[in-house]
Write a structure and sequence with these properties.
This protein is globular. Helices cover 8% and strands 53% of the residues. By secondary structure, it is mostly beta strands.
Length: 257
Amino acid sequence: MKKLIFTILALTCLAFDSQKEDSFDTGEFFKFRIHYGIVNAGYATLELKDATISNKKVYHAVGKGFTTGMSKFFFKVEDLYESYFDKESGNPYRYVRKIDEGGYTKNQEGFFNQNENKVLVKDYKRKSEKTIVITDNVQDIVSSFYFLRNHPNIDKLKSGEAITIDMFFDEEITKFKLKFVGRQDITTKFGTVSTMVFKPLVQTGRVFKEKESLTLWITDDDNKIPIRIKADLAVGSLKADLDEYKGLKSPLKVKKK
């Protein structure tokens, strides 16, 4: 379930040709409350820190997901996602994926060579490693969340327009197509917030009912952060709301408290 949340987070911004000033900075922190139906199922957090790789200062993003209360007894989730990425280009140098989802576990680390379009994936659970060919300037699932927030033309999208982006996840390049629906004011715990609404097209089957089963509400300000996520699943529904934040580079725009 938390893997789904981090995937959704990565889809909340879109790629365009030119870069603008960073929408984020070190110290930014988000916490999302996740509901499965009427049950408070757990939380997901995302924090941005500083780190050093090969004597170069980089961003270090840390994402965590975990179930709480009774949900923990029925389906225990403890997920950790990390990404180290360049402060100028946004390209990732390294990612970490260490998850336990109801007994399904992974413990992997990936090392990107953007010059050669390759990523070395080390699987510590299987005690193996492999080199995979990647596309130009590919992002991992966490770095993409930050990389794509820096593109300015998101404000110029028209209803019905769709963008496709590449992302490296689960040892392969995944293409996501996102459709912009329109703008909407929604009520949150912080007050009334203006948002942009997106529907990423997903695969139907075991997880999702339909191709447009996901709906994302993104703050219509300089931050472009996800403030609400809804998913109609094959069994039940999932909702995630921004519950706590700090360290935003720009103030969160709230119309009415």
